[in-house]
Design brief:
The complex is a heterodimer. By secondary structure, chain A is α/β, with parallel strands linked by helices. Chain A has 2 domains: 119 residues, Glutathione S-transferase Yfyf (Class Pi), Chain A, domain 2, CATH 1.20.1050.140; 118 residues, 3-Layer(aba) Sandwich (Rossmann fold), CATH 3.40.50.1860. Chain A has a 4-stranded parallel beta sheet. In chain A, helix 3 packs across helix 4, helix 5 packs across helix 6 and helix 9 crosses helix 10. Chain B is mainly α. Chain B folds into 2 domains: 93 residues, Orthogonal Bundle (Fumarate Reductase Iron-sulfur Protein, Chain B, domain 2), CATH 1.10.1060; 28 residues, no CATH class. Chain B has 9 helices and no strands. The two termini of chain B are 21 Å apart. The chains are: A alpha/beta, B mainly alpha. At the A-B interface, helix 9 and helix 10 of A face helix 1, helix 6, helix 7 and helix 9 of B. Bound molecules: iron/sulfur cluster (2 copies).
Amino acid sequence: MKVTYFPGCTLKNKAKDLDRYARECAEILGITLEEAENWQCCGGVFTTAGDEIATKLSSVRVLKAAKEKGEALVTVCSACHNVVKQTNYAMQNDRSFADKVNRYMADEEPYNGETQIYHYLELLRDVVGFDKLREKVVNPLKGKKIGAYYGCLLLRPGKVMGLDDPENPTVMEELIRALGAEPVVFANRNECCGGYVFAENPELAKKKSTAVLSNAKANGADMVITACPLCKYNLQKSASDVPVVYFTELLAEALGVKESCNE
Amino acid sequence: MNKKMLAEEIIRISGTDPKKCMKCGKCSGSCPAYDDMEYHPHQFVSMIINGNVDPLMVSESVYSCLTCFACAERCPRGVEPAKLIEAVRLFKLREKGKNRMSAEDVSAFCDADMPQQAIVSAFRKYAK
Ligand code: SF4
Ligand code: SF4
């Protein structure tokens, strides 16, 4: 199966780990992530204002690129996923917004939210299936106690994202189990890390991130996984010593391709 | 712009209806930035309903909001205070010369590990 892939800026740069492990593991699981052509930055955060049009066009364009190829669109970064998914939802449900967008892009084919978009975790759960994934594991991560940190962007707004139960998600815990490790559920797993506020109020970001990791540690996690480069950055800057890695790194380790990805 | 028009404009930009609020306080109870805000999410809602937007326009509170959507998720009435806060923020930033962050500021907070996402997100939130 081939899908259109939107890596986003960070996966091409500071979060190369998130990208290359994702591609390599998808191949093993029978899915080719083919990068969309000429994609542009999603902007990092979705602006909820209905009269903000131009900032959402890059998302519409990549959604449209997938539609034209008749493929699903896949994202890996939580922020890209949130922005593209919320934009797609607006294109489906807000006629006045969709009309304005299509007027902006009047020389192109109109788009009305037809593309199916998956976060990589949904791809694993809904397309590959965790049972099939389990069969492909060559290096089970036995004995590891791992906390899944969801943060905000994968889950909220719940009715738009539809990825999981926003208050009691399970997809990453199921992933951890499929890879042979033990998931550690902790209360702060869907609380904010502080996000972009670090840029002008680093103390606030540090407070939020420290709360997340100390809660994970108090519940017995040796390590925390995330799908978001900004979460990872904030968490690592906090006052806690719990290691934070991308979920794709864990996947690559269990599928036995971590080393070859780094060659 | 008079007070009533300003409140109406904020509501229009937000796309949400603050009058559905039943003053349960769940939004503020969920807010991770609560301690760092002068006006809390439920106050944004009631002040906008009452046309009392001026204090919000000069307060720093909008810039403490993390856009985590916890208030929107947990509001039992679908008011989604985050959208009202976003509308106030945009209304402020859209005024000429009112950007809160410029390219020169980036060097002050940038370090070698910082993901690109951090910088573009900060610009989305602090500049127009
Ligand atoms: S979106 Fe903003 S106001 Fe709402 S809970 Fe999060 S930080 Fe608080
Ligand atoms: S959670 Fe909703 S209904 Fe309750 S006070 Fe906040 S805005 Fe009003």
